[in-house]
Structure of 3-methyl-2-oxobutanoate hydroxymethyltransferase:
Amino acid sequence: MSVTTAKLASMKAAGEQIVMVTAYDFPSARAAEKAGVDMVLVGDSGANVVLGYDTTAEVSMDEMLTMAAAARRGTKTAFLVCDVPFGSTEVSDEQAVETAVRFVKEAGADAVKLEGGNPRRLSRIRAIVDAGIPVVAHVGLTPQTAVALGGMRAQGRTAETASRFVREMFAVQEAGAFCVVVEAVPADVVQLVLEHMQIPVIGIGAGAAHGQVLVQHDLLGITEGPMASFVKSYARLNEAFAEGIGAYADEVRSGVFPAGEHCYKSKPEALEAARAEVNQLSS
Ligand SMILES: Nc1nc(=O)c2c([nH]1)NC[C@@H]1CN(c3ccc(C(=O)N[C@@H](CCC(=O)O)C(=O)O)cc3)CN21
Ligand SMILES: CC(C)C(=O)C(=O)O
Ligand SMILES: [Mg+2]
């Protein structure tokens, strides 16, 4: 049975935690599906962890659509949410609807996720919801516009940003988002609004909420370098990758690989014909 917005709402009502993880290609989506997560997010964090860009703002529409379509092929039952890339919804409500429609038609998305909760962003949420596409809102730290927030910094630690966070939480719900992701906000500030939310709140660096999301490559230990303090790693795949490739390199260099079982066998007449050809050409 596929996960639906109704199922997610009923999980919230029943107090069951909603589990979300990112995926960016076929194998990472398959892994998420096999693990039985409820929601898969094709995050624009793929810009960083898969494509190697410095910021999420750099990823293109085509790159996001390619990652999203691959993730869809890898997950049939989880609810698939796609981040819309920076620049693809900023111009107008019409542009935002066109972008959301492309994720549904070309990638098979179940919903799109939009960063921000200022009045202009609320208009975009309303327009997409009016077009019949479910929207996940994203408030708190919004990496696409982190420059305007003063960098990759937690939000809601000052009176001004805490008030803005609360206003935006109520506003995105009112605008029609069926779910909201909260990133990098102090847990006690999040707790204050949690009981007033009719829609599921998914946290990342936001303490306990109705569910959690993490970047798959962070939790599996694939991401290199410093990570946000809210990340917990459950595996060290980076080491496993390097060990596996290192063992292969050692065996190639020592002649252990390829062994007999990795080689094709010829028929006697094929070997004979090849030998005759070699004799003729080398004489
Ligand atoms: N791999 C990956 N995982 C993520 O979770 C992630 C990305 N990429 N890319 C986009 C954003 C960036 N993320 C971040 C980064 C830093 C903080 C953070 O806690 N910053 C410090 C300040 C650090 C500074 O000033 O340099 C803070 O205390 O606010 C939070 C979220 C989360 N997102
Ligand atoms: C961290 C989550 C919420 C996200 O937006 C992403 O992975 O791009
Ligand atoms: Mg994102």
